[in-house]
From TrEMBL:
It holds the Pfam family ABC_tran. Keywords: ATP-binding, Nucleotide-binding, Transport. Belongs to the ABC transporter superfamily. Coiled coil: none annotated. It comes from Pyrinomonas methylaliphatogenes. This is ABC-type multidrug transport system, ATPase component. Residues 6-243 form the ABC transporter domain.
Length: 316
């Protein structure tokens, strides 16, 4: 077992809500998990599940009602713990009248570096997140969402932290931007060895990035462990790939005959993809397909998407 970078034990947080008639709302309920050095750890849940509340507690921005949280064995309320952490909030409000270089250098100065060193570190961080150098001295108000996320990552990295805490880092990005930020996070973990905790409700991103995950629902942990441990809860499905002149007709025929035993996708290009869970159904599917003139391309076993696994670990 590796060194524990984050230790959360029995974390509970209650808020008072309401104006005239106040009542208690429990945002976190006995949450416990650990993150080990060098991990990319995914913190998964729907909006409102308690992810941001947990991250704010880790950053010392709010205090828990009960329980404890430590970073590198130090209480999160200690400035020594926070000095080793880089943080990117979900919706950072950067000063858009600054340039990218000025903003990142400003955050470096806030952590105690002199101006010349802060500018050098800002350049290193912007280079690390692969922001094109021609944009370093542009005002942030002219940046796209994806470019701003790179700047946000740069400010989180500028003090060379041992731990990165990222709140929904891919939220609001288009598919290309999501992939670029996702690849960047993976590269940072490989190249620098930094430990990364990131929250997300975009389950496919977590599947592609994480060593381990914590699935949280209504403030309670539903699953903590490696992704392959979740996958073992369900047999990995099989995909049968077919081609046919009338793909949509073949798909409709198979859907009618197989019912809920299979999922179907038919494309205008003539491809039909049939996903089944029981290997014993393969011969039956092929027989039905041949009846409609379809030809087999491949049969392959595929990994479950985390979105499917999410259903296996949460109450509905």
């Amino acid at each position: 077992m590796g060194e524990k970078v984050i230790e959360i034990e029995g974390l509970t947080k209650d808020y008072e809500v309401g104006f005239l008639s106040k009542r208690s709302l429990r945002a976190l309920d006995q949450l416990s998990f650990t993150v080990e050095r060098g991990e990319i750890f995914g913190f998964l849940g729907a909006n409102g599940a308690g992810k941001t509340t947990t991250l704010k507690i880790l950053m010392g921005l709010i205090r828990p009602t009960a329980g404890a949280a430590h970073i590198f064995g130090i209480p999160v309320t200690s400035r020594w713990a926070r000095a080793r952490v880089g943080y990117l909030p979900e919706q950072p409000n950067f000063y858009d009248y600054l340039t990218a270089r000025e903003l990142v250098a400003y955050f470096a100065e806030l952590t105690g570096f002199r101006r010349a060193e802060a500018r050098r570190r800002a350049a290193d961080a912007l280079r690390l997140v692969r922001l094109d150098e021609k944009n370093w001295d542009r005002l942030l108000r002219h940046f796209s969402k994806g470019m701003l996320q790179r700047v946000g990552l740069a400010q989180a990295l500028v003090s060379a932290p041992d731990l990165l805490i990222l709140d929904e880092p891919m939220s609001g990005l288009d598919p290309v931007g999501r992939r670029e930020v996702r690849d960047l996070i993976a590269e940072l973990a490989r190249s620098s060895g930094v430990t990364i905790l990131f929250s997300t409700h975009i389950l496919a991103d977590a599947e592609r990035l994480c060593d381990r995950v914590c699935v949280i629902e209504r403030g309670r942990p539903k699953f903590i462990g490696r992704l392959d441990e979740i996958e073992q809860r369900r047999a990995s499905p099989l995909e049968i790939i077919l081609v046919a002149r009338e793909a949509k007709e073949v798909g409709a025929h198979l859907a009618h005959e197989l019912g809920d035993k299979a999922e179907m996708r038919a494309s205008a290009s003539g491809q039909v993809v049939v996903r089944i869970r029981e290997e014993s159904e393969v011969d039956h599917v092929l027989k039905l397909a041949r009846e409609k003139g379809a030809k087999l391309v491949a049969v392959q076993r595929v990994g479950l998407l985390l979105e499917e696994l999410f259903d296996a670990t949460t109450d509905r």
